[in-house]
Write a structure and sequence with these properties.
- This protein is an all-beta fold and 122 residues long.
- Helices cover 0% and strands 52% of the residues.
- It has no helices and eleven strands.
- It has strands spanning 2-6, 9-12, 17-24, 31-38, 45-50, 56-58, 66-71, 76-81, 90-98, 111-112, 116-121.
- Strands 2, 4, 5, 6, 9, 10 and 11 form a seven-stranded mixed β-sheet that branches.
Length: 122
Amino acid sequence: VQVTESGGGSVQAGGSLRLSCAASGYTSVSISMAWFRQAPGKEREGVASIDNYGRTSYADSVKSRFTISKDNAKNTLYLQMNSLKPEDTAMYYCAATYGRSLLLISSAYNYWGQGTQVIVSS
């Protein structure tokens, strides 16, 4: 499975961005995906996940601001980020795993992208 992120950039606080993650190389629809982020000097943290049934899970810090979704026809994962805050600044990573998972821990995912940078200025 290969995953490639895009859509990062710089935005002012209160603005919006949409990240995309194109997935390829898998033959089963039984794949769960997630977004993680890592800020300089901090550990990687789970942001949002979506399982193969379309159920979602969010970190408390992004609930009501971020929305994860997946277009199975396009094999693409999205993260709509609204009301962005400077503390959302980080490298954002897309991750995938076979089977059902809503976990927001890195060890639950086997396939990772290279990341896309998000910078939110105050």
